[in-house]
C-alpha cells in the first residue's frame, strides 16, 4: 500500500542588501512571514549592491536609479531568490520587465529627523549658528531646508547610518538630516533631536515603508508576501510613487510628498523645489483612496502646469555639466 505524501511547501528565498538597516528590515519580514506560515521555510540571501560599493561619489550625481536594487532584481530574474525586501524609497518607480511591487508594509513615521553634534544640543534648525554644516545627500532635503533656513550650509554625506553618525560625532558636520524610520529601526531613536515638521520639509516618496518586490506571475510567492500588506500605507505609497514617476527624469530630483487618508479619501501633497530653494511648487489633490495612482499622476500634471517641468529640466542640465 502506498501512502500519498504531499510534497513539502517550497522553501522561499528572501533577498536582502547587507547593510545593518537592510538586515533588520529583512529579518523582520522573515519573522512575520514565519509566524503567518509556520509550515514554510524562509531563507535570507544577502547581496551587495552597487550603492553599497560606490561610497565616494555624491548620490545626486549618480544618475543611475536602482543603485540599491539592481543586483537583487537580477537575483529574482535568475531565480536565485524569490523576493527582495527594500526600503520603499530606494525602489525605482519603474521596475524591470517581469518584476512587480508585490507588497507594501505598514509605514513608520515618514518624517526626517535632525541629529545634532553634542555641542548643539540646545539648538534647533532655526537656531543653529550661521554657516553650520548640515550633512545630507538628498537634494530634496537640501532644497527645502535652504528655502526655510538660508543661514545653514550643506555638505554631502555618504555611508551607512553608523558611518554617518561617526562623522557627525567626529566634528565633520554640525548636524545631519536622517530618516526617523531608519533611526528607530536601528534602535537609535535617542539620536533624534527634532522631527522635522511637514511644513518645513516634505518626506521622500515611500519613506518609512518597506517594499517587497517579486516576480510577476509567481502566484505562490505573491500570496505569501501579501500577508504583510498594509492597505492604507500601500494606497498612500502608490499615490506618491505615481507622482514621482510622472515627474522624474534621469537623475535624483528634489521632490517631496505628504499623504493622509481620512475615511475613503486620500490627500496627496507634492512639492518640487529648485536646488537653491528659491522656487517651490507645492500642490495638493484629494480623491478616492482606491484611485491612488490616478491621483498621483494628476497631481504631477497639475505641478507641471505650475512650472515643475522647468525646474526639473534645469536640475538635469546642472547635473550633466
Ligand atoms: N537612502 C537611504 C535610506 N533608505 C531608507 C532609509 C531609512 C528610512 C526609510 O525607510 O525610509 C535611508 C536612510 C535615510 O534616509 O536616512
From TrEMBL:
<keyword id="KW-0808">Transferase</keyword>
<protein>
    <recommendedName>
        <fullName>Porphobilinogen deaminase</fullName>
        <ecNumber>2.5.1.61</ecNumber>
    </recommendedName>
</protein>
<dbReference type="InterPro" id="IPR036803">
    <property type="entry name" value="Porphobilinogen_deaminase_C_sf"/>
</dbReference>
<keyword id="KW-0627">Porphyrin biosynthesis</keyword>
<dbReference type="GO" id="GO:0004418">
    <property type="term" value="F:hydroxymethylbilane synthase activity"/>
</dbReference>
<dbReference type="InterPro" id="IPR022419">
    <property type="entry name" value="Porphobilin_deaminase_cofac_BS"/>
</dbReference>
<dbReference type="Pfam" id="PF03900">
    <property type="entry name" value="Porphobil_deamC"/>
</dbReference>
<dbReference type="InterPro" id="IPR022417">
    <property type="entry name" value="Porphobilin_deaminase_N"/>
</dbReference>
<feature type="modified residue" description="S-(dipyrrolylmethanemethyl)cysteine">
    <location>
        <position position="251"/>
    </location>
</feature>
<feature type="domain" description="Porphobilinogen deaminase N-terminal">
    <location>
        <begin position="12"/>
        <end position="222"/>
    </location>
</feature>
<comment type="function">
    <text>Tetrapolymerization of the monopyrrole PBG into the hydroxymethylbilane pre-uroporphyrinogen in several discrete steps.</text>
</comment>
<dbReference type="Pfam" id="PF01379">
    <property type="entry name" value="Porphobil_deam"/>
</dbReference>
<comment type="similarity">
    <text>Belongs to the HMBS family.</text>
</comment>
<dbReference type="InterPro" id="IPR022418">
    <property type="entry name" value="Porphobilinogen_deaminase_C"/>
</dbReference>
<dbReference type="InterPro" id="IPR000860">
    <property type="entry name" value="HemC"/>
</dbReference>
<comment type="subunit">
    <text>Monomer.</text>
</comment>
<feature type="domain" description="Porphobilinogen deaminase C-terminal">
    <location>
        <begin position="235"/>
        <end position="304"/>
    </location>
</feature>
Amino acid at each position: 500500500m502506498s501512502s500519498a505524501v504531499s510534497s513539502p511547501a517550497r522553501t522561499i528565498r528572501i533577498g536582502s542588501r547587507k547593510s545593518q538597516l537592510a538586515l533588520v528590515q529583512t529579518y523582520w519580514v522573515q519573522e512575520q512571514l514565519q509566524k503567518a506560515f509556520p509550515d514554510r521555510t524562509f531563507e535570507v540571501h544577502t547581496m551587495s549592491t552597487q550603492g553599497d560599493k560606490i561610497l565616494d561619489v555624491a548620490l545626486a550625481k549618480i544618475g543611475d536609479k536602482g543603485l540599491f536594487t539592481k543586483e537583487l532584481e537580477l537575483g529574482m530574474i535568475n531565480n536565485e531568490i524569490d523576493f527582495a525586501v527594500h526600503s520603499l524609497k530606494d525602489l525605482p518607480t519603474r521596475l524591470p520587465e517581469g518584476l512587480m511591487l508585490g507588497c507594501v508594509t505598514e509605514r513608520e513615521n515618514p518624517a526626517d529627523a535632525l541629529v545634532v553634534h553634542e555641542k548643539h544640543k540646545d539648538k534647533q534648525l532655526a537656531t543653529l549658528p550661521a554657516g553650520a554644516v548640515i550633512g545630507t545627500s538628498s537634494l530634496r532635503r537640501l532644497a527645502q531646508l535652504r528655502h526655510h533656513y538660508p543661514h545653514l550650509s550643506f555638505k554631502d554625506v555618504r555611508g551607512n547610518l553608523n558611518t554617518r553618525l561617526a562623522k557627525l560625532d567626529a566634528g565633520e558636520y554640525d548636524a545631519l538630516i536622517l530618516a526617523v524610520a531608519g533611526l528607530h529601526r536601528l534602535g537609535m531613536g535617542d539620536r533624534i533631536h527634532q522631527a522635522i515638521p511637514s511644513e518645513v520639509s516634505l518626506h521622500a516618496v515611500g519613506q518609512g515603508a518597506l517594499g517587497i518586490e517579486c516576480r510577476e506571475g509567481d502566484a505562490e510567492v505573491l500570496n505569501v508576501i501579501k500577508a504583510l500588506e498594509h492597505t492604507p500605507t500601500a494606497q498612500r505609497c502608490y499615490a506618491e510613487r505615481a507622482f514621482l514617476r510622472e515627474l522624474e527624469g534621469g537623475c535624483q530630483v528634489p521632490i517631496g510628498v505628504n499623504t493622509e487618508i481620512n475615511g475613503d479619501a486620500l490627500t496627496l501633497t507634492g512639492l518640487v523645489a529648485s536646488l537653491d530653494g528659491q522656487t517651490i511648487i507645492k500642490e495638493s489633490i484629494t480623491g478616492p483612496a482606491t484611485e491612488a495612482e490616478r491621483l498621483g499622476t494628476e497631481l504631477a500634471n497639475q505641478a507641471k502646469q505650475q512650472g515643475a517641468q522647468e525646474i526639473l529640466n534645469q536640475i538635469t542640465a546642472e547635473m550633466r555639466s
